[in-house]
Queue: 3 jobs
Job 1
Amino acid sequence: MNYRHQFHAGNFADVFKHTVLVRLVRALQRKPVGLLLLDTHAGRGTYDLAAAAQGDSRARTPEWPEGLGRLSGRDDLPAAVAEYLELVRAFDRRRGNADPTPRHYPGSPWLLHAVARPQDRLAACELQPDEFAALRAEFAYERRTTVQLLDGYTALRAMLPPPEKRALVLIDPPFESQDEFALIANGLKEGLRRLPGGTFAVWFPLTERAGVAEFDREGGLRHTVALPPTLVVHLMVNAETSKLKGCGLLIVNPPWQFDQELAPLADWLADALAQAPGGGMELRWLVPET
C-alpha cells in the first residue's frame, strides 16, 4: 500500500473524526475507572501541513484549508469543536510554530494521548514500516504508551480484553484493500467476542467504490456481526455525484445518550465544512440502545 495520510491531514474528515473521537473519550471518562485507548491504524503520529502541499514529486493543493482552516476566526464554535481546535493549536505550539497558520497537525495517537488521564493507557499500532518508525520515535519517551509494528486487526485479538476491562478502539484503516469492510466486520466480531462492552469507533469514506451501502445498512454488517447498540453518523460535504461525498463513523457501544450530543455537533460540522450544495448529516441507530 502507498497511502500517505500526510496529504490529507487536517481535512474535513480529520476535523469530523477527531472532534468526535475526543468527545467519545470525554464521555467514557465520566467513569473513574481507567481505559485502554487502542488505535489500530495509527499512522505516523504527526503531519507537516506545509510538506503536504508539496506532494511526492509535484505541488498539490493542500486539503487542510477546507477542514481545519474553516474553523479559524469563528466565534460560534461548539464546545466540542473548541476543545478539539485548542488541542490542535497546543500541539502546533509545542512543535515550535508561533505563526497563526497551522504547520504541525496531530494524528489520532497524539489527540488520544492529550486527553488521556493518568489511569488511562494508549496503545498505537501501525503496519507500514516507515510510518511505524516515525510513530515509535514520536512516543519514545511517553509513559503509559506502547507502539507496535502490528496489523490493526491482529491487535484486536492480541490486546483485548485489556486489564482495565474497558476500552475505546479506533479503527481507521486507509481503505486501500478491496475487502476492507469485510476485514472490519471480522475485526469487530473478534473484538466484541473478547470485550463485549468495549466501545469501537470505525471511520469510513462515503464513496461508491467503498461499498458503504453493504456495510452500515440493514443487509450489511448486522448480518455478519451480532451487534450491541450501534450508532452510525454520515457527514456529507459534497454532492451525491462527487467522488468523495463525505465520511462516516460507526460507533459500537456508544456512551449512554451519546446520539443526543452527536446530532447537533455533526449538524454544525456539516454546515461549517460544506464544500458544495447537497451536503448535510445523517444520524441513525443501526441497533438502538435499550
Job 2
Amino acid sequence: MPTIMIVDDSGYTRRTHRKILEGAGYQVVEASTGMAAIEGYFLHHPDLVLLDLTMADMGGLDVLQKFRELHAGARVVVISADVQRSTGKMVAESGALGFLGKPVSAEDLIGTVREVIEADAP
C-alpha cells in the first residue's frame, strides 16, 4: 500500500485529504510544518508528498528544494490556493510532478495521486 505524506499547516486540509486518500486505500502520514515534513520524509519514506506552499516556518518551495537536495527521486505534488500561472511555473521548475489548486476535489486529488504513483509502476 503506497504511503502519502500530507504537508499542510491547516489541520482541516490535512484531515480532509487524509479521509479521501485513506478511503482510496492509501496509507497517510501528516506534517504541519516544513521542518516536520523533512524529518517525516526520512522516517516514513513516503511514495508521494502532497505539499502546501504557505507555511509558517518554511515555504513549500524551500521544502521541495530540500527534498530534491536530499533525495533526487522525491515525488512531490504541490497543492496551493495560489493558482497563478507564475506560481504553477515556479512549482514545475522546482521539480514538482504536479500542481493542484485549493480547494481540490476528491476526484482530482485521487486522480493525480494515482497518476504519479502509477507512473513508476512496472
Job 3
Amino acid sequence: MEWDSIVAEYLAVCQIRRAMDLLFTDAQDEFRHQVRRWLEANVPSEARGTGPLRSLDTAEGFEAHRLWERTMYDARWSVVSWPAEFGGRGVGLMEWLIFEEEYYRAAAPTRVSQNGIFLLAPTLFEFGTPEQQARFLPSMASGEVIWCQGWSEPDAGSDLAGIRSRAERAGGSAGADASASGGWVLNGQKTWCSRGAFAHWLFGLFRTDPAAQKHRGLTYFLVPMDAPGVTVRPIAQLDGETGFAEVFFEDVSVPENQVLGTVDQGWSVAMATAGSERGLSLRSPARYTEAAGRLLSLYRQRAERDPVAARRVADAVARAVIDAEAYKLHTYWTATRVLDGGSVGPEASMNKVFWSETDLAIYEAALALLGEEAELFGADGHPSSWLDGFLFALAGPIYAGTNEIQRNVVAERVLGLPRV
C-alpha cells in the first residue's frame, strides 16, 4: 500500500473518531487521575527502566508478580470493575478501559492472574453459585490463587469439542441424572496450559456423557493442582522458560461444588469463557496502542540514522499504528453497545483475529526497522523487548482458538455463509 493512501486512511479514521462521542465524564477523568497517581507511586521500579520484573514464566518471577497483584488488591486496583465485596471498586466497563490505558501507559507488570480475572471470573459471575463466587473470586483478585486453563489436549487443540478427558460419578455412573452424592473422578490429559507450571487451580472441560453428541455431554470443572492424582509436567518455551505445562489426571476426586454451571452443559459455559478470551476482557486496546506508540518512536530514531532504510518500512509502521487505533475505537464502540444492553456474540471471533494479527504486525515492523540488531541479546542474556514481544506475538494467531477456526466462525455465524 502506498504511503499517501495510508495517510488518507489514517485521516479517515481520525474523522470517524471525531464523529464519535468519545468524551469522558468529569467523574471518569477524575478516576483516570486517581489511577495514574497510584500507578506512578507504586509500579515497581524494575518495570520503570531498571529492567523488567523477572519473567512470570520462572518460579522467582511468578512469585514477584503475585506480590504485585497483592499490592494492587490491597489498594483495590486489581479488579476495578468487580463488586466491592470481591475486592473491586464497582466501576463500569468504560472505567476498566481507562484503567487499562493507564496501566499500560505506566509500563506496569504483566498480569500473572489474567487467566483468572479476565477469563474465569466473568464466567463465575455468569454461571457460578454465590458460594462459588465468594470462595474463588477474592483469592483470585489478590493473587493468592493463580489459575490455569485446562482445555487443549494432544488430539484436541482447536477442536475443543473433541476432548477425551473424562469425568465419571464416583459411583461409576455417568450423566446428569446420576446420583450427585459422591462427586466426580477425573481422568485424562491437558496440554499447553498457560501458567500451568506454577498455577494453584485449573478450570477445564471434561466429558461426562460419552454417548452424547460431540458438543454435548461436557462439564466444566474447577480443580486444585495439588489434588491427589494430578501430575504437572512443565513445557519449555523457545526461551527455555516454562510458561506452559501438560497436566495429567489419574482418578482425581472432585466434589460436586466444583462443577461450574450445569452437568453435561459445559460447552455453553466454555463458550462464555471463550467470548471473554476473544472479546473485550483478555486483550485491552491499550496493549496495542502503547506498543504502536513505541513503534513510532523507534521509527523516528531509525529515520534520523538511515532515512532511506526507514522509508522501506514506513508503510508497515503506518499500517500497524492505524490498526492499533482502529482496534481501540472498535473496542470503545463495542463497550458502548454492551452498556446499552447488547452483548458480544460470535463477533468476538473477528475481534480475536484482528488483535492477534495487529500484535504480530507491530513487532514485525519493529524487527524490520532494527534489522540485524533485532537479534542481539542484552547484557542479562535475554532478548530485547522487541524480539521477545515478537516471539510471543507469533502465538497470538494460535491461542484462544486458531485464526483459521475463527474465520470459519465469522463466515458461518456472522456472515451467514454456507458450510462447505
